[in-house]
Amino acid sequence: MPSENTLKSLSELNEVIKKEHPTLSKRLRQVAEFVIDSPSDVAFGTVAVLSEQAGVHPSTWVRFANSFGFRGFSEMQKLFQQSLMEESPNYQDRIRMARSAKGVEEQEQSPHRLLKRFSEGNSLALQHLSETTSSAELEKAIDILADAHAAHIVGVRRAFVVASYFAYAFRHIDRKAYLVDGVGGMYKEQASTLDQNDVLIAVSFRPYAEETQSVAREAAAKGVPLIVITDNQISPLASIASVSFVVKEAEIDSFRSLSSSLCLAQSLTIGLAHELDRREQSASSAD
């Protein structure tokens, strides 16, 4: 961790935060997660407001800044403001601008108004997904999936929807797929069937289910490739993943969508089908 401020950009700070995250105290981790999740809020906010949003004491923000070599919060905040001026509006900024444009209309809670708000929010989230997802990472994930003998998929509670979709879709393209559903509490037993020729897809969103983490850690310990879909760069799964996709879902009135995660799952599945077909045709041509 830097003893004095040697960080010149927000991306550099984010990289250091991700590296140091496991060693931070509980309160500093809360700030780190807020910083990664809501950079625009940090750029605009006062210490008092940010402390309330992050659920920490104001002095924690100062300690956090000091921990990364800044003389105080204001010096660290300049990186966030600089980034905001240099870059085009990000997803959160677009949401903020969209909310401001709606004005009084947002107070309406008719079914049609709710449908419109969810549709607009998901549209922005899907656009953000396509803009921020790396082509190289998509291709890497599809290569891993194509090379694997079987895919095992884990995701609980809200993430179960995405995990179960993967299992359903893979079977429709004639790929072996096993849903690690922990029936009877047997997560450990189901995870024990993984071997190095397989792949594990882990889907986990905050607060990051321990069941999913446990299965992912066991897979990583065995050297099984791990593809992760999560919502934060400092998710506990991201650091052990072979490929990690960070997905920002639309959130309306504290209800988070799954449209972007399902879109990514569908893209990986159809991309895998095309890759398997390409390999089959190449093999036929070679014969």
Automatic annotation (TrEMBL):
Family annotation (InterPro entries): Homeodomain-like_sf, HTH_RpiR, RpiR-like, RpiR-like_SIS, SIS_dom, SIS_dom_sf, WH-like_DNA-bd_sf
Residue span, HTH rpiR-type domain: 11-87
The name this protein goes by in its record: Transcriptional regulator, RpiR family
Superkingdom assignment: Bacteria
Source species of the chain: Marinomonas mediterranea (strain ATCC 700492 / JCM 21426 / NBRC 103028 / MMB-1)
Keywords per UniProt: DNA-binding, Transcription, Transcription regulation
Residue ranges of every copy of the SIS domain listed in the record: 141-282
KW Transcription (keyword) present: yes
Transmembrane stretches, start-end: none
GO molecular function: carbohydrate derivative binding; DNA binding; DNA-binding transcription factor activity
Gene Ontology biological process: carbohydrate derivative metabolic process
Record has Signal as a keyword: no
